[in-house]
């Protein structure tokens, strides 16, 4: 099983959106028994909460399931247990690298690094911008390319 973890700051806006959109894509490609998807936040303020209303509305509108999703904070073991850890922005990425230290981890990178023609490198935080549509557009292109990358690398 290939395990993929999306990481943002609060785990209520961006990483749950990436988790849900990526899982939907994985299922549509018939890979749900080969790729497992999860998300977590570097911060712990929203532990146990549902995704943000803006993320819920957007996903529901597009018939993408949010069933069972609850915010959690990233744990040290996650760095050993997930082969792909995908940050939403440079701050998340820095926090992940600090947590990983000199450990031998799986792939740690930023979502929009998979979109070389993207106009931004970080997924802007809609908790502050309130622009969930923009997040969806970036997450949609990032997750598509990420899945291509993983399929190629894992020979799936
Ligand atoms: P997210 O957005 O990292 O995309 O889930 C945030 C949600 C909550 C907070 C910050 C960012 N917060 O400071 O509570």
UniProtKB/TrEMBL annotation:
Key word Hydrolase present: yes
Source superkingdom: Bacteria
Annotated keywords: Hydrolase, Protein phosphatase
Pfam families in alphabetical order: LMWPc
Gene3D superfamilies (alphabetical): 3.40.50.2300
SUPFAM superfamilies linked to this entry: Phosphotyrosine protein phosphatases I
Reaction equations catalysed: O-phospho-L-tyrosyl-[protein] + H2O = L-tyrosyl-[protein] + phosphate
EC number: 3.1.3.48
A molecular-function term among this protein's GO annotations: protein tyrosine phosphatase activity
Protein name: protein-tyrosine-phosphatase
């Amino acid at each position: 099983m290939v395990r993929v973890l999306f990481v943002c700051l609060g785990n209520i806006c961006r990483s749950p959106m990436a988790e849900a959109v990526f899982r939907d894509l994985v299922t549509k490609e018939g890979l749900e028994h080969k790729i497992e998807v999860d998300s977590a936040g570097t911060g712990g303020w929203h532990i146990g909460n549902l995704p943000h209303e803006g993320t819920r509305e957007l996903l529901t509108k597009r018939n993408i399931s949010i069933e069972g999703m609850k915010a959690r904070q990233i744990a040290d073991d996650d760095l050993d247990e997930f082969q792909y850890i995908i940050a939403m922005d440079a701050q998340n990425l820095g926090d992940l690298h600090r947590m990983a230290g000199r450990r031998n981890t799986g792939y740690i990178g930023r979502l929009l690094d998979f979109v070389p023609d993207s106009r931004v490198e970080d997924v802007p935080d809609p908790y502050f911008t309130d622009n969930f549509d923009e997040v969806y557009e970036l997450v949609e292109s990032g997750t598509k390319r990420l899945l291509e990358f993983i399929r190629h690398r894992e020979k799936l």
